[in-house]
Design a protein that fits this description.
binds 2,4,6,7,8,9-hexahydroxy-5-methylcarboxamido nonanoic acid, TIM Barrel, 292 residues, 12 helices, 8-stranded parallel beta barrel, 13% strand
């Protein structure tokens, strides 16, 4: 069994010039992140523009990542969907394809009740043999997990942890204190050090695609018992993340990757292309913090 702790890149989806998924560049990114010291991959999450992809693209992306990873690092497949049936189908595919674990955002849009959302997770866990990481992202999903909700999910032995994309560090600390056996991954890269200080076991992030050396610095310095140097790395990372957030996270991460030789041709519509000002600011970020 692979280690759940550590840094897991929420992979972007590179496209070809005509807007098809670019599996060649995706594999190149996987290979490069392994060389840079990533601990795992979070495949088909928000960062992958997953709800703008077809079902067969979502499956194809997972298969391509598993092939390039070749058993080396942890591979977590995001299987979330509005429909339980579809999420179970993705989870069964992930298991058959060889992923190590699944994760799922709560079903959204229809404002499902807490009970319905609990049942969704229990049915995904019952439907495949893989460990589950609940994806808690209240800002976008509209549902914030609670401890009673977690208690019900714990009735399944497949509940492995939470991807915690929220700035409520008090809640993160309480969950981890009461559930030391659950793995908690920090979701906002700009708060990685805060999450680690509150007890997170690692993180999943979009900016790990392009800022891994800085993020690694935060994690390794914190683990080595040197919070001051960890904070120095977090500050440098945040100089970049501030610009990334200002101009659209996914398009910005992809532009930074393009500067370093991985082409991805922007994001799918309705995401708009980067503005010329965004591009100029990102070029400066690249030259200041990332160019070697
Ligand atoms: C995913 O599902 O793709 C990621 O795990 C999401 C991840 O938590 C990112 N959240 C969003 O993109 C909304 C963060 O890395 C985020 O992009 C970063 O902290 C900048 O705000």
């Amino acid at each position: 069994k692979k280690e759940y702790a550590g840094l897991h890149a929420a992979l972007v989806t590179p496209y070809t010039e005509t807007g098809e998924v670019n599996y060649r560049e995706l594999k190149k990114l996987v290979r490069r992140l392994i060389a840079e010291g990533i601990d795992g991959f979070y495949v088909g999450g928000s960062t992958a523009e997953t709800f703008l992809l077809t079902e067969s693209e979502r499956k194809g992306i997972l298969e391509a990542v598993l092939e390039e990873n070749n058993g080396e690092k942890l591979v977590v497949s995001h299987v979330g969907a509005i429909s339980t049936r579809q999420a179970v189908d993705f989870a069964q595919h992930a298991e058959a394809a060889g992923a190590d674990a699944v994760s799922a955002i709560s079903p959204f849009y229809y404002k499902f009740t807490q009970r319905e959302i609990e049942d969704y997770y229990l049915e995904i866990m019952a439907g495949s043999g893989l460990p589950m990481f609940v994806y808690n992202f209240p800002n976008l999903s509209g549902f914030a997990l609670t401890e009673p909700f977690l208690e019900r999910l714990k009735s399944s032995s497949r509940l492995a942890g939470i991807k915690f994309t929220s700035s409520d560090m008090f809640q993160l600390e309480r969950i981890k204190a009461r559930n030391p056996g659950l793995t908690v991954w920090n979701g906002f890269d700009e708060m990685l050090l805060s999450g680690l200080a509150a007890g997170a076991d690692g993180g999943v992030g979009s900016t790990y695609n392009c800022l891994l050396p800085l993020v690694r610095g935060v994690y390794d310095r914190f683990r080595a018992g040197d919070p001051a140097r960890a904070l120095a790395f977090q500050r440098r990372a945040n100089e970049a993340i501030e610009v990334i957030c200002r101009h659209g996270v996914f398009a910005s991460v992809k532009k930074l990757l393009e500067y370093s030789g991985i082409e991805s041709h922007g994001c799918r519509r309705p995401f708009s292309p980067l503005s010329p000002e965004g591009e100029a600011e990102l070029r400066r970020v690249y030259e200041t913090h990332l160019a070697r």
